[in-house]
Every structure is written in C-alpha cells, then in structure tokens.
Write a structure and sequence with these properties.
Number of helices: 2
Largest sheet: 2 strands, antiparallel
Oligomer: single chain
Order of helices and strands: HEEH
Helix content: 40-55%
Strand content: 5-15%
Strand order of the largest sheet: 1-2
Number of strands: 2
Distance between the termini: 56 Å
Structural class: alpha+beta
Radius of gyration: 24 Å
Length: 98
C-alpha cells in the first residue's frame, strides 16, 4: 500500500470513524427485519429476524476500530517527527491591549 501524507491520513481517519459509527449503529440495532402480526382481540406478535450475520458484523466493527487506532497512532508519531517549515512562532501576533 502506498505511503500517505498526514493530510490524507487525517481525511482517511475521518472516513474510518464515519464507517465505524455506521457499523456500530447497525450492530446496536442488530440490523433486523421486523414483522408485526395483529390478530383479533388486539393480540399482537412481533417477529424479528437478523438481516446480517451478527458475528461477522461484530468482527467488522472491531476491525475498523483497530484500523482507526493504528492510523491515529501513526499520525501522532509522524506529527512528533515533523516540524512546520517556513514559519516562526511569534507571540506578539496575539497582541497586547495597553
């Protein structure tokens, strides 16, 4: 896999987090199909059947979460080793009120 820049890594991290949130929502809802049967005398029966394999969905959630942790650690490591070029921090830019 090709190396990516910090900016590309941050964008990919955002994508991974969005996908993780989608998968967690699916897992929490159990991705189920719900069928309701109404009978006489106000009897009601609800039948729920999973749409996705729960074990595979949970494994995918864990896999995406692990990828997020690995990428986040790599970005932080790259950030520590990188300095900003062509910029000198100037505290006087904050200004002082006299």
């Amino acid at each position: 896999m090709p190396k990516i820049t910090i900016n590309e890594g941050l964008a990919w991290l955002k994508t991974l987090r969005a996908r993780h949130a989608e998968l967690v929502a699916l897992r929490d809802k159990n991705a189920e199909r719900e069928t309701r049967f109404y009978g006489a005398n106000a009897d009601k029966q609800i039948e729920k059947t999973p749409v996705y394999d729960v074990k595979k969905l949970d494994a995918l959630v864990g896999s995406v979460a692990m990828e997020i942790r690995i990428l986040d650690a790599a970005i932080k490591k790259a950030n520590v080793m990188t300095t900003i070029q062509d910029y000198d921090q100037n505290e006087s830019a904050l200004g002082a009120i006299e």
